Structures are given as structure tokens and as C-alpha cells.
Amino acid sequence: MSASNHIPSRKGELLKQLHHNGKILVLPNVWDPLSAILLESLGYSAVATASAAVAYSNGYNDGEKIPFETVTDTLKKISAGVNIPVTADIESGYTTDLKKLSENIKRLLDTGIAGINLEDTRHDDHSLFSAEVQAERIALFRKIATEQGISLFINARTDVYLKPDLFPGEKSLEEAVRRGKRYKEAGADGFYPIILRDKAAMETLIKEVALPLNILLLPDTPDFETLQKTGVARVSLGPGLLKVAVNAIKNVSEKLLRYEGMEEIKQNPVTGAYLNGLVAKK
Q: What's the predicted TM-score (pTM) here?
């Protein structure tokens, strides 16, 4: 599928609008076409992939361990399976080299995605790209997408809160603000300080960076009402939805191993006809 065939501007602009309508955009991240189709059928206006969920479901650990070709093949199938915008978690772009990154960007855009998550962790040594280098990488995404006529939503993820040894205490917020501003200048549309839980820090980032703020749903994340009042634009689950699915499979499989749980299979409202109906629409 070429870049000219996946209605890039319409989906990219729609994805951007969903971050600016005053309502939290909830994204229970998917990993394959069926999970994406299911969410679309339930009324979701967009879907997002989680790198960890895509990796685990293909038998790999997260952290760019999965072959890049498998990622792009999965994204093509997901994008082709739904009519709503797809935003993809692409970790750090699967390279630290700008020339190779240019090639990867073109391959990613050719999958039909309307948005990306791009993080500032280097997966070769687990350090952080400098703010300046990461800004250059974001700018490269923006440049190539613009050249191809694609209104790509760039969600810039920062991992400063994953590095308390480098940014202890208030330094983490200071660095997040600094990086957020720099990433915005480079062309980012959204800002994602992963594992941030503190409401006051969220308010500061929303005010200082002035980009839609993405929060990861964790056990101690504030509730939706609080996040809405705070001004959070987007809440994603990472591999959370996959974990829910695996837990359900694990629980019933353990029962079956004990010759129990038959009724859960027999009475499951998700029938073959239901699944046929989901995919038959595509």
C-alpha cells in the first residue's frame, strides 16, 4: 500500500482533533487486526498499538527485540482492518542512525498509520538521547511525513521518569518540561512522560509545554474524573489490555486443566458468529 492510498491527511487530522476536543482520548492499546476491529466496533474513534503487546503476542520481549519487518507487517494489517486512525508505538524507530531512520520512517508511513509514539531511549545502551538529538529525530519524522502529504500525529514520549538516578526529585519535572518544549519546537503534536502519576506535575507540564498530555494507566494513576479536570488529553494502557486478555485465557485454561471451567466456554457470549460478524465487515 503506497502512502498516497491511505487517506493520510484525513486520518491524521482526525487523530489530532481527538486530542483537542476537551475529552480524554482513551486508548486500550491493541496488538493485531482483530483487537483493533473489536475496539472500532465498540465505538472507539482511534486505536493505538503498544510495542510491548505487539512484541509479546509475536513471541518477543519489548525493547526493539522484535524484527522491524514484523512490526511493519503487523501495522499494515491493523491499518487495513479498520477505518479509524491508527497510531503506532514504534519505540525509538529501531535505529540510532539518522540515515537508517529515514528509511524506517518511509516504511512506517507506508503502513497506513496516522500517528506514532516516539520515545527518547536508546535501545543499544538504554541511555537517553539528548534533547537536541531527539528533537532532530522528531523533525525528521515531520519533514518526511510532510513531503509525503501525511498529517502525522507525533506523540513524543520522554523516559525521564524512568531514570530517577539521572533526574532525582524535582529534576525529573524540570527535565521533562525542557524536553517537552524542545520536542514541540521540533514538530511534536503530543507529549508523553511515561509513568508520570503526580497530578501537580501533570498540571505543570500541560501549562509549560502546551501540548496534549498523554498519561499511562497504572495502578496508582489518578481516576478519570481527576485526569479530566487536570486537563489530560489522552490515557493509554500500554500492554494493559493484552494482560487482561492473557489473564482471562490463563484463568480458564487452568480450570480446564483440572477438568473444570466447561461452562465458561459454553456460555461465552463471544461466539463464532460474533467474530465472523466483526471481520466480515472488512
A: 0.94
